[in-house]
């Protein structure tokens, strides 16, 4: 089952925000969670539901449920003086493209009507390759979508089988072709370090990725989450555990191959052709912007306040039908927690973290991090903490040293 929601304070029924919020970040992101999947992948602990798990919720009614939360959000943001045009919109899941293109267009239209969408906004829809058709991509482009993010994961059938992915490798280039024909930017997501995956397997996937010549690539190390089917298979000894050293080799190979193909890293797990093809939505997360997450289990952040919605689609729909916020809980991190989070997130991006933003104890660690080859010396002297390739592999250790 999906992971549990965090603990927190009770959220007000009207969704209202505290008074005296700090000045707004220039970016405002909108995330729309579409919690439906045909099957649950063995490694996934996201808040997703197959048809047999909906228990009273309806895919057909879902855009109407989201519309109610969008209307509530507009009221809350107005009252807080924070309503402004969205600079990015991201439909994630789950599998957003299980819904008809008209349903996705309706939800995007509701966001546009409530907040406005900036003229240069990035609007992304995630998709499984086997749900993408030329008719769908044309409809999305017509509605204002600018970018399709395709869940490729691997080009090797045996690896896809271990991950319980349902698509064939050939579906990926077809999806990319359909997206390009509609004028959309294209990103692909891949996962490395699957149990049983060899370095040769991963190189085969990288060959397929670079042959696609997409605008953007996200490559994530597989993390085996407790409670997933994959974790249970490993516990029973049916498949091997994930090898950290092999994952590190795969990451180094990824960076080298993508750099040779014309991509530059801009976040530990993300590469793009240029600055214009970076994920503006994800950068807003890493830089601490405001965003509102719509849908069951979605998380939001406005003015330093964080909250998260009830998980099940039926509970989400019921709360909204009664005129209440779907938020299950919220928190307002203190200054120390915000500083820690800023370090954890900004150190991961290629633009780096301002050395001056670190506490005194953290600044004393910088020289040692340079000596250990974990951060770039020239950038640090210029005032920005930028990870080296070795530092990206050991990013968590860098954060611990900076914040101890």
Automatic annotation (TrEMBL):
Keywords: 4Fe-4S, Chaperone, Cytoplasm, Heme, Iron, Iron-sulfur, Metal-binding, Oxidoreductase, S-adenosyl-L-methionine. SUPFAM superfamilies: Radical SAM enzymes. It holds the Pfam family Radical_SAM. The keyword Heme applies. GO terms for cellular component: cytoplasm. GO terms for biological process: porphyrin-containing compound biosynthetic process. It is found in: Cytoplasm. Residues 22-267 form the Radical SAM core domain. GO terms for molecular function: 4 iron, 4 sulfur cluster binding; coproporphyrinogen oxidase activity; metal ion binding. CDD domains: Radical_SAM. PANTHER family: COPROPORPHYRINIGEN III OXIDASE, RADICAL S-ADENOSYL METHIONINE DOMAIN-CONTAINING PROTEIN 1, MITOCHONDRIAL. Probably acts as a heme chaperone, transferring heme to an unknown acceptor. Binds one molecule of heme per monomer, possibly covalently. Binds 1 [4Fe-4S] cluster. The cluster is coordinated with 3 cysteines and an exchangeable S-adenosyl-L-methionine. Belongs to the anaerobic coproporphyrinogen-III oxidase family. HemW subfamily. This is Heme chaperone HemW. It comes from Microbacterium ginsengisoli.
